Amino acid sequence: MTYAQVKDRLAAPFPAARVAWKPQTVSRDRSSALMVAFVDARTVMERLDDVCAGEWSFDVKLSPGQPGQPPTARGRLTVLGLTRSDVGEADEGEAGTLKAAASDALKRCAVHFGVGRYLYDLPRTWVAWDEGRRAPLDPPRLPEWALPEEERTPGAAHVLGALDALRTGLPQDVGQLREVYRHLRAALDTVERAATAPEATASLRL
Predict the structure, then answer these.
(1) Are 50 and 74 spatial neighbours (Cβ–Cβ below 8 Å)?
(2) Does the domain formed by 3-141 have CATH 3.60.20.40?
(3) Residue 200 pLDDT > 50, yes or no?
(4) For residues 60 and 73, is the Cβ–Cβ distance under 8 A?
(5) Which among 121, 88, 122, 85 has a CA at the least distance from the CA of 102?
(6) Which candidate, 116, 117, 141, places its Cα nearest to that of 127?
(7) What is the mean pLDDT of residues 153-173?
(8) CA-based Rg of the chain, rounded to a whole angstrom?
């Protein structure tokens, strides 16, 4: 077994239930937050075990950090004979925990092998924030392409494939791209108006 043979399995989206969200930034009035998606270190280790059990190892060197700074960890992840290294640190809310820094180092190293890399491509969305619970009122939802195949809407794979094919044919000129977007936006608006028209709603109820 080689990395080339398993890289797609390592990089596959995680089940939606294993993806969590945390605020990257909270607005000044504490009413909204910019959310980012993440998975924990246990989920990463389970993916490595599922795809290449017994063929990976992780070494970490911990550093307590300077006063007022979070601890850091330099990790080295070896998967099927390939080694990648990266540095992790504890989040602000986890300051002082070497374990959090080591977990972050593992996740960052795993990204070099494709594990969870797609999470960096997710759109970062502002949502309503409940300061009392320190949580979003309604967490963001993952787009279709960021879900495993079994969790996608039937037929979504065909739509996503068509979008990928369309993307390769887009013009490079910015002016032409704006013109394409204008026509596409107009077409989408037409579809939305048709879907919400009274006669369309009545036909859907039949």
Answers:
(1) no
(2) no
(3) no
(4) yes
(5) 88
(6) 141
(7) 64
(8) 22
Reported as a single tens digit per residue, the pLDDT across 57-78 is 999 998 876 767 778 899 999 9
DSSP H or E stretch at residue 22: strand 20-26
Q: How far apart are CA 101 and CA 65, in angstroms?
A: 11
Angle, in degrees to the nearest 10, between helices 41-52 and 3-11: 140
pLDDT in tens, 84-112: 999 998 876 555 588 889 999 999 999 99
pLDDT band, residue 206 (cuts 50/70/90): very low
**E strands within 27-106?**
32-38, 56-63, 72-79, 82-89
The pLDDT, as a whole number, for residue 65 is 67
Helices (H), 15-120: 41-52, 98-111
CA distance 96 to 68: 9
* Structure token pair of residue 155: 């037929």
Amino acid letter at 179? E
Kindly list the domain boundaries of the chain, sorted by start residue.
Answer: 3-141, 170-205
**Contact between 141 and 126 (Cβ < 8 Å):** no
Q: What is the dihedral of CA 61, 67, 68, 71, to 10 degrees?
A: 10
Task: Place 186 in a pLDDT band, splitting at 50, 70 and 90.
Answer: confident
Inter-CA distances, 108 with 50, 63, 118, 174, Å:
19, 17, 13, 35
CA distances from 182 to 81, 102, 196 (A): 50, 47, 21
**Residue 25: helix, strand or coil by DSSP?**
strand
